[in-house]
Amino acid sequence: MDTASFLSVALALVALVPVSLLLLNRLRYGKLPPGPRPRPVVGNLFDVKPVRCRCYQEWASKYGPIMTVWLGTSPTVVVSTSELAMEVLKTHDQQLADRSRSRTSEHFSHGGQDLIWADYGPHYIKVRKLCNLELFTPRRLEALRPIREDEVTAMVESVYNVVTAPGNKGKPFVVKDHLAMVGFNNITRLAFGKRFMNAAGELDEQGREFKGIVTDSIKIGASLSIAQFIPWLRWMDPVDQKIFIAHEERRDRLTVKIMEEHAKALKQRGAQQHFIDALFTLREKYDLSDINVICLLWDMITAGTDTTVISVEWTMAELVRNPRVQEKLQEELDRVVGRDRVLLETDFQNLPYLQAVAKESLRLHPPTPLMLPHKASASVKIAGYDIPKGANVIVNVWAVARDPKVWDNPLEFRPERFLKENIDIKGADFRVLPFGAGRRVCPGAQLGINLVTSMIGHMVHHYKWTLPEGVRPEDVNMMESPGLVTFMATPLQLIATPRLDKEELYRRVPSEI
Ligand code: HEM
Question: Which residues sit in the known binding site?
Answer without folding.
Answer: 442
